[in-house]
Specification:
The structure is a single chain. Helices cover 68% and strands 2% of the residues. The chain has 350 residues and is mostly helical. α1 runs antiparallel to α8. The protein is globular and about 65 Å long.
């Protein structure tokens, strides 16, 4: 029954935040930083999966939306004194030099601005398809980065912003990740989500069934951009410093890697993959340093961990060519069936 599923979901969320509380009390700052990055990459991965996985659009402009959210959140949360210290070459534009809002409101505004930029980019670009759309969105993301590099009175140009208030913590990151999962999950299971999947499978058939391709593509693109902006704001606040070089194509590639490894069109796969890639990349960091095995000293090779990590990812993709989860999802019904109980479907007793 729906009520039982809702109760189980609430219990799962409570257990999650109990785990967050225990982690907050016991783990050191390094491990907490990795957990925060895992949660942020869940937000970013789901925002990109909504566009690329569920709607079937090949977009490579995610770094641009993240930049909009990161800079907006940073500018709105930085104290006046810190702004003066950052903008020592060119004074900051008024009234931004004295503007200050709470972190939650700054995150929301950053996401809204990113969504607006996503709409402005998506309206013309989404008339393209496939590789042409990928090239167009990649170009728009690069334009955003170059504009931020040259808007010195707003973004401090190539120098970037430093001493950003580190408002992001494990409660913020996992809280936003939970809200993102619940929102994207509800959206995908709604009539809009079914329209997104229909467009992904066959645009001509979807249009013949009365689905407005342009409306639903722009909607998915705008919502994805909004959550990318929120994720960018969390990332900037966590790191405490941002600059235009952070938001190059490599950042988009990392997020694309998460959704491909987890499964294009799978919320569960994106969550699993975000944790695997973030923790795996850190776990292999010892390969960059010299190692001593008995009397043998093996010198460290810079970048070796990424070579090994990439090779491991290639092996996974070869054996799971649709990702870890494909288009499958974790559901309470699937869990009950696995343990030999009746699913919580209508008419079931459990």
């Amino acid at each position: 029954m729906k009520q039982k599923k809702t109760l189980l979901t609430v219990i799962a969320i409570l257990v999650l935040f109990l785990g967050v509380y225990l982690a907050d009390q016991t783990l050191d700052s390094y491990k907490m930083r990795i957990l925060n990055l895992c949660a942020i990459y869940v937000v970013l991965g789901l925002s990109m999966n909504l566009i690329n996985g569920f709607t079937g659009l090949f977009s490579l402009g995610h770094a641009g939306f993240m930049a909009v959210g990161a800079y907006t959140t940073a500018i709105l949360t930085m104290p006046d004194v810190v702004k003066g210290q950052n903008f020592f070459m060119v004074p900051m534009m008024k009234p931004l030099d004295t503007m200050h809002v709470p972190f939650f409101l700054a995150l929301l505004i950053g996401g809204i601005f990113a969504g607006i930029v996503g709409y402005l980019i998506g309206a013309p670009a989404l008339r393209l398809r496939g590789d042409y759309l990928a090239i167009a969105t990649l170009g728009f993301a690069e334009i955003i980065r170059v504009v931020f590099t040259n808007m010195q009175s707003v973004t401090n140009g190539a120098l970037g912003l430093k001493s950003i208030p580190e408002s992001s913590n494990i409660w913020w990151t996992f809280g936003v990740a939970t809200v993102t999962v619940l929102f994207i999950g509800s959206l995908i299971n709604s009539s809009y989500g079914r329209a997104f999947k229909a467009i992904r499978e066959d645009e001509i058939a979807a249009e013949s069934m009365g689905i407005s391709l342009f409306k639903h593509k722009v909607l998915a693109f705008t919502i994805g951009a909004f959550f990318a902006g929120v994720g960018g704001g969390l990332l900037g606040s966590l790191l405490g410093t941002i600059d235009p070089l952070m938001f190059r194509f490599f950042l988009t590639f990392n997020i694309l890697l998460i959704i491909i490894l987890g499964g294009m069109g799978s919320i569960t796969g994106t969550i699993i993959s975000a944790f695997i890639i973030t923790i795996g990349g850190e776990a292999l960091r010892f390969l960059d340093e010299s190692m001593t095995i008995g009397n043998l000293v093996i010198p460290g090779i810079s970048g070796l961990r990424m070579v090994v990590f990439s090779a491991l990812l290639m092996i996974v993709v070869l054996f799971f060519n649709r990702g870890i989860m494909g288009t499958n999802e974790f559901t309470w019904d699937r869990l009950f069936v696995k343990f030999g109980k009746k699913p919580l479907a209508k008419g079931g007793s459990k």
